[in-house]
Amino acid sequence: MTNQVSLLAILLLFVGMIMPTCAQEVSIAQAPSEASTSEHFACPMHSDVSSSKPGKCSKCGMELKAISAAITEEFIVRIESLPKHIQPGQKTRLRFVIFNPRTKEQVKDFNIQHEKPFHLFIVRADLKHFDHIHPVQQPDGSFTIETILPQAGLYHVFCDISPVGGVAQTIHQNLVTAGFKGDSASLQARLQPDQQLTKTVEGLRITLDFAPETPTAGQPALLRYKLSDAHSGQPIQDLQPYLGAWGHTVILSADAMDYLHSHPLEDHATETKLRPAKAPATIYFETFFPRAGMYRIWSQFQRQNKLITVYFDLKVTGKEGWLGEM
User: Fold this and answer.
1) What is the pLDDT of residues 200-254, one digit of tens each?
2) In terms of C-beta distances under 8 Å and separation of at least 24 residues, what long-range contacts does 32-35 make, across chains too?
């Protein structure tokens, strides 16, 4: 009998301990959702870095500042092409219309990011074509641009926007040209890591190295570009700002599932018009590889009024116990 009383007492004590927790969970579940009006935090320098909690920017380390973003969901992008069936190698007009994910109304107001309201990246599925262009907003609020998709195939379209009232975001869609056969071999790039991380483009010698030396999935990585004149071998002194930064970097996994867009650390490319910033010869980017596997890194720099694009293929290793892998 004593043992039964003791067991009953323990059960009552246990029920008494969990009841407040259960009641609290029920009240939370029944309370109206406040996710849409909760405070969000973003980096003052990198508006594409945001979080629902205070913290530091993953790119530059600055404290995230509170922002009022009523809508945190992904916005809707509708793409139209003229002609409707895109002909490879011929000029195509693309039109983008953005909609509020809740009201389904067209969005016409956008924040400026690096001098533009819309950064568009078009990449062929095999990663053999890369284009960073900027659609122009029309009186009806849509964005249009003319471009050429050079070969038949599937193209990934990354729309980098910051709608007023929402958070900065990148929306991934696809375009398919006429003549695309849809074979699986063309849907994913076959990349091999570059053995030499020095390339020369338009008279600019570009050397890339990393910290840590071998980038690892799930850990921050620092990219360092050393820029020198291909003829003299000396560090350049005439780098020009491009879209308000000393450089732009886009990283894409071989399967196009992981997209990373980064700008230089401590970027002071546009200090003031009266006191221009001193052009650097070494540029640092911070990034984060979410999975192990192959990646292509495109970086863009401007010199002598020429936009120079260079790419490197990189294998990212996985740390022990890391599950993310292509």
Assistant:
1) 999 999 999 999 999 999 999 999 999 999 999 999 999 999 998 999 999 999 9
2) 35/72
Query: Do residues 172 and 259 touch, judged by C-beta distance below 8 A?
Result: yes
Other CB atoms within 10 Å distance of the CB of residue 12: 10
User: pLDDT higher for 272 or 68?
Assistant: 68
Q: How confident is the model at residue 326 (pLDDT cuts 50, 70, 90)?
A: low
Distances (CA, A) of 120 to 20, 144, 173, 249, 276: 51, 11, 11, 13, 28
Q: Is the pTM of this model over 0.70?
A: yes
- Mean of pLDDT over the chain: 83
Domains of the chain: residue spans and CATH = 76-186 (2.60.40.1930), 198-318 (2.60.40.1220)
CA 232/CA 87 separation, integer angstroms = 44
The three-state DSSP-derived secondary structure of the chain is: CHHHHHHHHHHHHHHHHHHHHHHHHHHHHHCCCCCCCCCEEECCCCCCCEECCCCECCCCCCECEEECCCECCCCEEEEEEECCCCCCCCEEEEEEEEECCCCCCECCCECCECCECEEEEEEECCCCCEEEECCEECCCCCEEEEEECCCCCEEEEEEEECECCECCEEEEEEEECCCCCCCHHHCCCCCCCCCCCEEEECCEEEEEEEECCCCEECCEEEEEEEEEECCCCCECCCEECECCECCEEEEEECCCCCEEEECECCCCCCCCCCCCCCCCCEEEEEEECCCEEEEEEEEEEEECCEEEEEEEEEEEEECCCCCCEC
> What is the reported pLDDT for 23?
29
